[in-house]
Specification:
Order of helices and strands: EEEEEEEEEEE
Shape: elongated
Distance between the termini: 40 Å
Structural class: mainly beta
Largest sheet: 7 strands, mixed
Number of strands: 11
Amino acid sequence: QVQLVESGGALVQPGGSLRLSCAASGSILRINDMAWYRQAPGKQRELVATITPGGATQYSDSVKGRFTISRDNAKNTVYLQMNSLKPDDTDVYSCSADVIRLGIPYQYRYWGQGTQVTVSS
């Protein structure tokens, strides 16, 4: 099995900061790209940021300059540092990992259950 577990979601005031973490565990040979998504009730899932194994990153326009994605390959963990938070950032944030498992000759994208981020005064 492969599991991804997010943590760090909380209620914060506008302008505040949070750091989300997502740790992957299981029979993992290699993790390629990892990413953060977010989704509010009744809205489509939005890609927030992606990161390659080597650290190359991409961001959605809505979070550029405010959010930073990073990863610790030794810990199979991806992070999302969120600064200057806005009420519109209120969403469930989920991580994904493109995983190659031991003994399985193809890649599969796994998802975490999500962590709630609420930005409100």
